[in-house]
Design brief:
Elements: H1 9-71, E1 87-96, E2 99-108, H2 121-202
Antiparallel strand pairs: 1-2
Length: about 200
């Protein structure tokens, strides 16, 4: 990125102002990036904790459900609408460093699944255990969404920080130095001309 401007004092003032603004913006973005990383590490810790908490129960439920399905009469496996407990998912939002992070919660209508003929008691118990675990799974999905949103914002903010730090600020500084050198050179040339003219007038 090369900045092309006329080497005038007005342009030097404008470049200095832009440079100062870029440095302040860089500091703010760097602080934001540090804050985002802290939030990401905290969210990652909670995500892994929830993952570890759910892994064992889910494995047990799926294994039990697979075994129970084999003991159930296949033609009775599809559930009727009367058997289904309709879940309700609500979302709340938390603002973290300018990012709207959703938090999902799940609740059921007050209806327990019935144990019908053709289904084993093991199948019913697996379904009931999975039903109890669903709110935690929805919470787990919320934590995953938070990680994705934070990671995207971290990458975007880091790109902006790097663009300021390694491209714009160095180029503005280089342009300001170049303008100063040209102005100083022009001033020396003018002084030399004035001295020569003054010497001729003395003669």
């Amino acid at each position: 990125m090369r900045i092309r401007v006329n080497p005038t004092r007005m342009q030097l003032v404008l470049i200095k102002r832009r440079l100062d603004l870029s440095k302040r913006g860089h500091k703010l973005l760097k602080d934001k990036l540090d804050g985002l990383v802290v939030e990401f590490l905290s969210a990652k810790k909670e995500f892994l904790r929830t993952h570890d908490m759910l892994e064992s129960p889910l494995r047990r439920i799926f294994q039990a459900a697979a075994a129970a399905s084999a003991l159930s009469v296949q033609k009775h496996l599809p559930a009727s609408p009367e058997e289904i407990s309709v879940p309700e998912i609500t979302a709340s939002y938390k603002n973290i460093m300018g990012i709207s992070i959703p938090r999902y919660t799940l609740s059921y209508l007050e209806r327990e699944p019935a144990l019908l003929s053709g289904r084993s008691s093991e199948f019913f118990e697996s379904a009931r255990d999975f039903r109890k675990l669903l709110p935690d799974l929805v919470d787990f999905a919320s934590r995953l969404e938070a990680l994705l949103l934070l990671s995207r914002q971290i990458m975007e903010t880091r790109r902006r920080v790097n663009a300021l730090e390694y491209i714009l600020i160095p180029e503005l500084s280089k342009t300001a130095r170049s303008i100063r050198m040209k102005l100083e050179e022009a001033e020396r040339s003018s002084r030399t001309v004035l001295i020569k003219m003054s010497g001729k007038n003395d003669l």
